[in-house]
Amino acid sequence: MFKGFYTVASGMLAQQRRTEMLTNNMSNANTPGYKADQAGMRAFPEMLLQRFDKQQIPTENGLNLPFNKEIGTINTGVYMQEAIPKFIQGDLRETGRKTDMALLDINMPENGSVFFTVRNTDGTVRYTRNGNFTTDAQGYLTTGSGHYVLDSAGQQIQLSSDRFTVNEAGVLTGENGESANLGVAYANNPLRMIKEGDGLFRTEDGVELPTAFGAEGVQFRTQQGFLEQSNVDISRTMTDMMSAYRAFEANQKILQAYDKSMEKAANEIGRL
């Protein structure tokens, strides 16, 4: 009976966390460059149930021999192991702003992806697909949250004004003739990257990603005046949220049934 309580409770917790993940996806449906998370659900290890009994042998002394019989396996519940981002290209939306940029994947090795490189406030390098950039008072190109956008040499990009051009190869040319190569990194397995806030990612081991320029089999294009939209499928997310809610509700009803059975066992069977 108590095993059933734990199994149902684990199912409710898993669906609650899945709902929270889907809600976060929905709230970021309009965030540029956002990569939707998908849940990795796994079951706890199964347990083998056995019944212990004794068998009486018809002898003069009435010998009893203990034995056990296998009943079968029981699953001990489910849990949400992790939230895995989907690195699928989002649609491009034209904004007309010079400081907006988007990375368009032309040809990528399986599971590979490219990212803008930015410097975090603590000096470490981070990666993002959100090209909603701006320029600060000193003319440095930054993200909306103030992280410096880096060039191919890992240096901050300083421009004389926000009237600059970016060609498809990622070369920035300022109004006064200054030039810089936009820093774009390539990850052959972005699933190993760790997702942070503000649309930022970092590598699992802290080692910086290699440049995407010249990488074998990697073809991409930089689009100025465009933003990559979120790859959240709103209709699918709403369907998944309803499914998670119904699964939570079903587990809740089972839990109530267990509770009533325990109440009956305590109040009625205990009197006999």
Account of the protein in words:
By secondary structure, this protein is α+β, with helices and mostly antiparallel strands. The chain folds into two domains: 2-83 and 237-271, no CATH class; 92-228, no CATH class. Helices cover 22% and strands 34% of the residues. The chain contains two helices and 19 strands. It has helices at 2-27, 234-267; strands at residues 37-43, 47-57, 63-74, 78-85, 92-94, 101-107, 113-119, 125-128, 133-135, 141-143, 148-149, 165-166, 171-173, 179-181, 184-187, 194-195, 200-202, 219-224, 226-228. Strands 7, 8, 11, 15, 16 and 17 form a six-stranded antiparallel sheet that branches. It has a three-stranded antiparallel sheet with strand order 12-13-14, with no helix packed on it. A two-stranded antiparallel ribbon has the order 1-4. The radius of gyration is 29 Å and the shape is elongated. The two termini are 20 Å apart.
In short:
InterPro entries: Flag_bb_rod_N, Flagellar_basal_body_rod_CS, Flagellar_FlgE/F/G, Flg_bb/hook_C_dom, FlgE/F/G-like, LlgE_F_G-like_D1. It contains two helices and 19 strands. The protein is an alpha+beta fold and 272 residues long.
